[in-house]
Amino acid sequence: MMDAVSTGELAAALRTWRDRTRPDDVGMSVNAPRRAPGLRREELALLAGISIDYVVRLEQGRTRTPSAQVCASLARALRLSDAEQAHLFRLAGHAPDRGRISRRIPAGVRKILDAVHDPVGVLDATWTLIAWNPLYAALMGDPSALSERRRNTLWRLFVEGEPGDRVRHTRDELDALARSLVADLRGSTSRYPHDPELARLVEDLTAVSTEFAAMWDSGVIAGHHQSHKTVEHPEVGAVELDCDTLTTAEDDLRLLVFTPAPGSDARSRLDLLGALGTETMAVSPSASGSATAPPPR
């Protein structure tokens, strides 16, 4: 739990980082003169996928401890360095612990998100999406509008039947994906025995999904390999992709990299989607910021 000193330091740090972050640093257009060069609160809320009210309460030091996922979203939105991220997590009561999952987005991973011209999503060791590049959001739908629980791949798969609103799988593909994800999650529980959010996820999935409970009890073991995805996009149609999962050594993150399937027209569809996404992102934040994401859970 955060004490009053840490709460005040966190509030001051967030204000400082927001004031120094210019809109063009994070891909936001500015269509009118501004009194200050930094991000507005509503812009930070939009980028981090949290409510404006929650940003206000954080900056005024009058809210509960922000979750690790919220800290990761703030760090991503504010483009914090590795040292600044570590400071943010410590102030929020999430000091590094070998028994707990890291939700830090290293600067090197952010560079990959900025440089790769294919959709890329970054997930923690619970398979919860914590960062993504613009093309991923354009392809899959804006993840910032989702609650933290609905950003979890296992929750979407076992509770809602598909890992994403636009992804389509055959029954065999879903079965293979389910086995590999459960096996990977089991490995995470042995590496992070003291992580409360991981324990809560397993408990909740067991309570609401008999399929997950049976698979978990069976001790299923399966590897996570390259997979094929068909994404049904409302504007560009079916996009055929290969998905490779890369794991970082230090933070145990999963990078999902989607590349055009050989022999498909996915490259041209992604290029079109990139152009459409750029036009959508050019909308003034003041015009789009009225619809904020739900407050963190």
UniProtKB/TrEMBL annotation:
InterPro entries: Cro/C1-type_HTH (IPR001387), Lambda_DNA-bd_dom_sf (IPR010982), MLTR_LBD (IPR041413). Gene3D superfamilies: 3.30.450.180, lambda repressor-like DNA-binding domains. It comes from the Bacteria. Pfam families: HTH_31, MLTR_LBD. Residues 34-85 form the HTH cro/C1-type domain. This is Helix-turn-helix transcriptional regulator. It comes from Actinomycetospora chlora.
